[in-house]
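**User:** Once you have settled down, spend some time on the protein underneath, comparing sequence with structure tokens, and judge whether sequence predicts the tokens.
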Amino acid sequence: MAFRNRFFIFNNALFRGAISHSLPMTAGQEDRFSLFLTVEAACQRHQAVWDTDFPAFAQAFAKFQEHVAEIGRLAADQRSAIRGATRQKIRTRRAMEDSARQLGGALAAWAEVNGQQPLAERVYLSRNAWHKLRDTVCLTRASLILKEGRARLADV
């Protein structure tokens, strides 16, 4: 329900022109945008039917086309390439995740062999689990794995 409310608020704000920065489009928003494009194409295909006989519909459709064009511009901004500091941050985080995952996997294997199951559970995380962590939690978890690895360096 919370997702639905955020999606509704985002779309309403977009139609009122209140959004000035780009937010990543969710799958639901992309589906809705596809629906808008389909409706626009269908109305354009049958414009002869409503263009002269229904002036109110023609006005509403013109406004609808403006909104669809604005969504298209915002969607293009959101798909722009990641550059600079953001790209470096992503690379650095992935390198940290990979290193921590390798060390954590080795420590977990050693802990399993030596009957230290709690340690194995603390230091092992799958690749998917690493990707789901927020930056600060990821750093904390990697630091914990490094600390555990250093503490058991002589044993390994």
Remarks:
- Helices lie at 2-16, 27-45, 47-50, 55-78, 84-113, 117-123, 127-132, 135-151.
- The CA atoms of residues 98 and 127 lie 8 Å apart.
- The chain has two domains: 2-16+25-78, 85-151.
